[in-house]
Automatic annotation (TrEMBL):
InterPro entries: DUF6879 (IPR049244). The lineage of its organism: Bacteria, Bacillati, Actinomycetota, Actinomycetes, Micromonosporales. Residues 5-168 form the DUF6879 domain. It comes from the Bacteria. This is DUF6879 domain-containing protein.
Length: 168
């Protein structure tokens, strides 16, 4: 398992591209629970909880690197997906390319079993969650076949995923 420091170092060290594939309709990250509950109650958010990630995105994209994310989502959307749709403009403003793909449009794309990050098309880090959406840690993948599967999933999903501005 990667430590938080090792995981965040990946964003400093990659050369060109970092892609994240998210395939769950709900995540149970502790840092998001309060903001998500405020969203559900219709209360405003100061987004302080999101500032560290937005800084990483700004730093990386200012350096000329690309960060992109595709979210495969069920339609109709879960409450968590609606919240993610509402927050995506912050990521985009920071420099991240965010796209959406309705689950029923995935077709024959072979998806890996877990969410992952793909760095420079050659390094995969799994970001698995349990059935309740709790994060289980980050794990680097070294099997060339699985790295190739993740690369193929990225290419297939990205080719048909819908840019945020067109999805909402």
């Amino acid at each position: 398992m990667l430590t938080d420091e090792e995981f965040y170092a990946l964003f400093r060290d990659f050369k060109r591209t970092a892609f994240h594939l998210e395939m769950r309709d709900k995540y149970g990250l502790d840092s998001e629970e309060g903001p998500f509950q405020r969203f559900m109650r219709g209360e405003p958010d100061d987004y302080a909880w999101h500032a560290p990630w937005l800084k990483i995105v700004r730093d990386v994209t200012t350096a000329g690197k690309e960060i992109s994310r595709a979210r495969i989502v069920t339609v109709p959307h879960s409450d968590y997906t609606r919240w993610s749709l509402a927050n995506a403009p912050l990521n985009i403003e920071a420099g991240e390319d965010v796209r959406w793909l309705p689950r029923h449009e995935v077709g024959n794309i072979e998806l890996p079993p877990q969410d992952f990050w793909l760095f420079d098309d050659e390094r995969v880090v799994w970001t698995p969650f349990d059935a309740d959406g709790r994060f289980l840690g980050s794990f680097e993948e070294r099997d060339p076949r699985l790295i190739s599967q993740c690369r193929s999933a990225y290419e297939g999903v990205w080719a048909i995923a819908i840019p945020h501005r067109d999805y909402v």
